[in-house]
Amino acid sequence: MQVHPLDADDPTPPFEQLRAQLAGRVAAGDLPAGTRLPTVRGVAAELGLAVNTVAKAYRALEADGVVVTEGRRGTFVASRPAGADAGTRAEAERAGAAYVAAARRAGLTLPEAVRLVEGGW
Q: Which among 5, 25, 68, 108 counts the fewest CB atoms within 10 Å?
């Protein structure tokens, strides 16, 4: 499994770029359940990142249930419950639309609504 290069000009922090890349590849089926991810040190060396940056991305993926770490065996793409693939994105889109409607009813501005999402992220 190869990790795609990150965008140095993107204002998004590197750990978040890596987290989003891997989560997106899992959701798209590019990284099926059981795929072993490279070691934290290996990804850090490949991308020219600090080990702690990659470790932070892996921890976030594990907290989201995208990957599981099995001690010295390594980190693997987690098994996904039935219907979790395409349905998960559709569910997020429905939740986003519901949030927008609630934020507008509450009189929030777009920047205020975005700050709430960022705070929860």
A: 5
Lookup result for tokens 């997020």: 92
In percent, the amount of the chain with pLDDT more than 90 equals 60
E-strand ranges in the chain read 67-69, 75-77
CA distance 35 to 79: 10
Answer for the pair 22, 35: CB distance below 8 angstroms, yes or no. no
All residues at 6 or more sequence positions from 89 whose CB lies less than 8 Å from its CB, including other chains: 27
The pTM of the whole model exceeds 0.90:
no
Contact 71, 30 (CB under 8 A): no
pLDDT above 80: residue 89: no
Sign of CA dihedral 28, 33, 38, 39: positive
Q: What's residue 51's pLDDT?
A: 97
